[in-house]
Design a protein that fits this description.
heterotrimer, A alpha/beta (338), B alpha/beta (339), C alpha/beta (279), A: 338 residues, 2 domains, four-stranded antiparallel β-sheet, 11 strands, 19% strand, B: 339 residues, alpha/beta, five-stranded mixed β-sheet, 14 helices
Chain lengths: 338, 339, 279
């Protein structure tokens, strides 16, 4: 289906009436972040990507798990799963499939995350301008990848102002059917134009080979190379918070008098107190161990347990690191491990 | 111009390592995205040739000092020796190092400071915004103009002053003092410390000031990048993470976020060198500068003190003079300094 | 969908101070809701998250055996915010339990085997569960000989003293209690656990060892067991690590690719050897 530029406002209104709609909005400090919107004027052009990933829609920074009074549970918040995300990049959409593994797997489902995901529709926006810090094609992704997307949107038409909306899943097809009033049928050759865009975008990215990384990491766990690559790390946690697949969290109680809430908040393996035992023992007392954990979780452990590298190459960690630690350089340095 | 300074830094650093005067040199190197510099650690002769200098050397390297001088608890008489480390230091870095020396984070005698006069660092964010968010592929600075080329090939030319960091524009101390070696190079004309920037905050009635502050902080995601990037934030267990007592909640909830920033910034009183490392580190681009400058301005107004180059001076918050200002105790809420 | 973050309401039925230092207490908890008791199906080796609203949760090994009906036992050391509050809580206090969590000892593999139990210090709690389960008349005949060594620094640190006396006297288990160094008034075995195990020299033939103790004890016990002929897959350990969710989602307790709360806390030495020593 085609969403013409002149129909965008009506389309967005139609979607926002039927569901909670999240779009990239202009952030006062520059860039964009996902925020709830009811009108198309809220959508801001996103180059190359939002500050925070789409994970914040499904896994907010702070979330109440339950509220209590004295020793009894007073309430468990309901979760609104009627969500539409319009404009997530393929790297973000793909990362949500790995989050599904974490929050939905292990024999126990996390209802807060899973219920939001169940009915949510992700319209992924194909990426025409990958930047120097993007590397999705090096980790099995693509600027027009469809993993995790329900609908794939790509620019088309005069001035690239129209959008081709292609359903990827049944959920996506139902979504398009629901709002067909604002859409027009697409020409039969429309997908081939999208393919051409994908090829053009992908060709702008250098494909790095990380296939040798896991065996090198596993064998070189105690290598001094880890010290060298983590020397300048500040332990600031910015990389983990902007990452679409980092899922670590803390659970704490916040009370006032005899009432309170048990909340789940983002946490990071980069913090020195993350693994500190009550006894004072800390298995990861040095920052080399903490960065090693981050890289190995993504490139060694997740491939073992979730059959996927937990990195979609979105490059946010590279862009947000105050000391310009670059995950691609760190991985390359590890491949050189003796 | 910056090439000459770069060469001078390398020339000063090389013999320090070669003669075993230090075991490590902390400086700057070219980063991974082709144009900005980032912290560099030179432990061997070959590493010296990676040291760079240009107008993207904005990281405050003093942040690494506490960690480099950390040791596990020592047995008396069997202490492991502290390292001897050299720092390439702009004046702001040096003032942070001096603050840390005063707080016993490292003995001055174990530091070799290579001072570098500064013409001000270019603000990455300003440049990025000025090119419409496009990606910067390369960058050249001839001291008067900054020429930026985007990844798409477009060239933009800026008056240098227009893209220099705000922190640098009002910097009072562009020339480092008290370094062991000072390389030759041009420096900015000292600014006026920028206290005027906080005048509009000071004019606001408390309710409005609070609204301004909490609106800005509402975007905080409690990542602690500001804290970790700050050279004078080095507590092993930050008050924000204590759970006994739990002073604040750990999540991005308005009250908790506001108190975290208020307390962190107050903890910097008399120690903050207004380098804006916190602002640059924030992944959400929160304006921390207005508030860090407010604290610094208050300390200047109340105690006549700005963190300087003298490691023997006593910080104002650990000294007491009988004539110390105390209106903020006796007349809280009164307009003006500290109000 | 069952919400795995919601604690089940329980009540403290009684509290026993276990050690002279009075910092280890055993809490007997009863379920407030019938259906929770009926569905709390566990095996020795598993743990649960004990919850006190306003203080948080702590992961504690289950000390009772499923053969002990109607209640759960948890032995808790006072360490931090939550456990301090728990220690100050009298009988009748209402709290919460999430569980059972983790994998138990490998009971299918233990069928028909001779079992060696080696434990030190406070880690003995889940082995109380295991021993009580093994010695239950309904279970005893399914297993071979049972040999146990339990050591602490000094007699005041011994847990479950009445049960220890019974086990030492029992014919169904060869139970040795030992303390590290001689102490006046103690007429029992003296010696570090690994040394005592070596002296006893249990037969590794058709045997599996369950080893729970502080890292230093484990470090010196494993070579003894290997020397006695125990295969690495037949040395079973239980790990501890800092936990929060207890269900493998919060990312905190992993040792390499394995979450202690989800894939463990029980691991064989063969498995652990392949994992990074980050615990």
């Amino acid at each position: 289906m085609v969403l013409e530029a002149r129909s965008l406002a009506a389309f967005v209104e139609s979607v926002a009436k039927a569901a909670k709609l999240f779009v990239p909005e202009a952030d006062p400090a520059g860039g964009t972040i996902f925020a709830e919107a009811t009108s198309a004027t809220a959508i801001a052009p996103t180059v190359p990507n939002t500050r925070l990933s789409v994970k914040s829609v499904f896994f907010p920074q702070r979330e109440v798990l339950l509220s209590y009074k004295e020793s009894a549970i007073e309430a468990v918040p309901g979760v609104d799963g009627n969500l539409v995300v319009f404009g997530a990049r393929p790297c973000d959409a793909r990362a949500m499939t790995w989050m599904d593994e974490v929050f939905g797997g292990g024999g126990r489902e996390d209802p807060y995350f899973v219920e939001r995901r169940r009915a949510a529709v992700i319209v992924a926006m194909g990426c025409d301008e990958p930047c120097a810090s993007c590397f999705c094609t090096s980790v099995g992704g693509s600027p027009y990848g469809t993993e995790g997307a329900d609908v794939l949107a790509s620019r088309m038409g005069a001035g690239a102002a129209d959008l081709l909306l292609e359903p990827v899943t049944e959920k996506g097809a139902s979504f398009l059917a629901k709002h067909a009033g604002q859409l027009k049928p697409a020409a039969a050759d429309a997908p081939s134009a999208r393919q051409a865009r994908e090829k053009a975008a992908a060709s702008r990215m250098k494909v790095l080979d990380f296939s040798g990384v896991k065996p090198k990491m596993d064998a070189g766990f105690e290598s001094p190379a880890w010290d060298a690559i983590t020397r300048s790390c500040l332990g600031c946690g910015a990389c983990t918070y902007v990452c679409p697949t980092c899922h670590c969290f803390d659970i704490t109680d916040e009370s006032r008098g005899d009432r309170g809430v048990r909340v789940r908040t983002w946490d990071a393996c980069q913090y020195s107190l993350f693994t500190l035992h009550a006894s004072g023992h800390n298995p990861r007392s040095h920052k080399r161990a903490r960065m090693r954990q981050r890289l190995m979780h993504k490139y060694s452990y997740a491939p073992e347990t979730a059959k996927a590298v937990f990195c979609s190459g979105c490059g946010r960690c590279v862009r947000s690191c105050p000391v310009n630690l670059d995950i691609r350089e760190m991985l390359a340095a590890l491949e050189d491990l003796a | 111009m910056s090439a000459a300074i770069r060469d001078a830094i390398r020339a000063a650093a090389r013999p320090l390592l070669a003669e075993g005067k230090v075991s490590l040199i902390v400086g700057y190197e070219r980063g991974s995205n082709g144009y900005r510099c980032r912290p560099s650690f030179a432990a061997r002769a070959g590493d010296i040739d990676r040291l760079e200098w240009d107008s993207t050397c904005s990281n405050n390297l003093a942040v690494f000092l506490p960690g480099l001088f950390q040791r596990p608890p020592q047995k008396k008489g069997q202490e492991t020796p502290l390292p001897r480390i050299a720092f390439v230091a702009k004046a702001c870095d040096l003032r942070s190092i001096v603050a840390l020396v005063k707080e016993l984070q490292a003995p001055r005698g174990n530091l070799v400071l290579i001072g570098v006069p500064c013409t001000g660092m270019v603000d990455e964010r300003t440049v990025r915004e000025a090119v419409g968010g496009a990606e910067v592929a390369s960058f050249a600075d001839d001291g008067k103009a900054v020429v930026v080329r985007t990844a798409a090939g477009a060239e933009h030319r800026f008056e240098r002053e227009a893209v220099v960091q705000h922190a640098c524009r009002c910097c009072q101390f562009p020339v480092p003092q008290g370094a062991d070696v000072t390389v030759e190079g041009p420096a900015r004309t000292p600014g006026d410390n920028g206290d005027g920037l906080v005048k509009d905050i000071e004019k606001l009635p408390p309710a409005e000031r609070w609204a301004r502050f909490s609106a800005e902080m509402s975007r905080c995601i409690r990542c602690y990048a500001c804290r970790q990037a700050c050279p004078t934030c080095y507590c092993k267990e930050c008050f924000a993470e204590q759970n006994n007592p739990a002073w604040i909640g750990v999540g991005a909830e308005q009250t908790d976020v506001s108190i975290f920033h208020i307390v962190r910034i107050f903890h910097q009183a008399g120690r903050c060198v207004e380098c804006d490392a916190c602002l640059r580190a924030c992944p959400m681009g929160i304006d921390l500068r207005t508030w860090t400058k407010k604290i610094a301005a208050d300390v200047r107004a109340l105690y006549g003190f700005t963190p300087d180059f003298d490691p023997t001076g006593k910080p104002p918050l650990v000294t007491f003079k009988e004539d110390d200002a105390q209106e903020f105790i006796t007349e809280p809420g009164a307009q003006g300094h500290g109000g | 969908m069952k919400n795995p973050y919601l604690p089940m309401p329980v009540t403290i039925a009684d509290v026993t101070v276990e050690n002279d230092a009075r910092d280890i207490k055993t809490f007997r908890l009863t379920f407030d809701r019938e259906e929770d008791l009926a569905t709390f199906d566990y095996l020795p080796g598993q743990f649960a998250e004990l919850s006190l609203f306003g203080r948080g949760e702590s992961p504690i090994g289950i000390a009772s055996s499923p053969t002990e009906k109607g209640h759960l036992l948890f032995s808790v050391k006072r360490m931090g915010v939550m456990t301090s509050e728990l220690h100050a809580s009298p009988t009748g206090t209402k709290m919460g339990v999430r569980g059972p969590l983790g994998h138990p000892f490998p009971w299918e593999r233990l069928e028909g085997k001779n079992i060696l139990i080696v434990s030190g210090g406070f880690a003995f709690t889940t082995l109380r569960s295991a021993i009580t389960y093994l010695l239950d008349p309904a279970n005893r005949s399914r297993f071979g000989t049972i040999t146990a060594v339990y050591g602490v620094r000094e007699p005041g640190e011994l847990l479950y003293k009445p049960a220890l006396q019974q086990w030492e006297a029992s014919k169904d288990i060869a139970f040795t209690t030992t303390i590290d160094r001689p102490k006046e008034g103690w007429n029992g075995r003296v010696g570090l656990v690994p040394v005592v195990v070596k002296e006893i020299g249990p037969d590794a033939e058709n045997a599996i060892a369950l080893v729970c103790g502080p890292p230093i004890m484990i470090k010196f016990t494993i070579p003894v067991l290997v020397e006695l002929g125990f295969a690495k897959e037949d040395i079973v350990l239980s790990l501890e690590n800092r936990m929060k969710c207890g269900i493998g989602k919060c990312g905190r307790c992993n040792v390499g690719s394995q979450y202690v709360c989800l894939h463990g806390p029980v691991f064989t030495w063969a498995q652990l050897e392949k994992l990074p020593a980050e615990y």
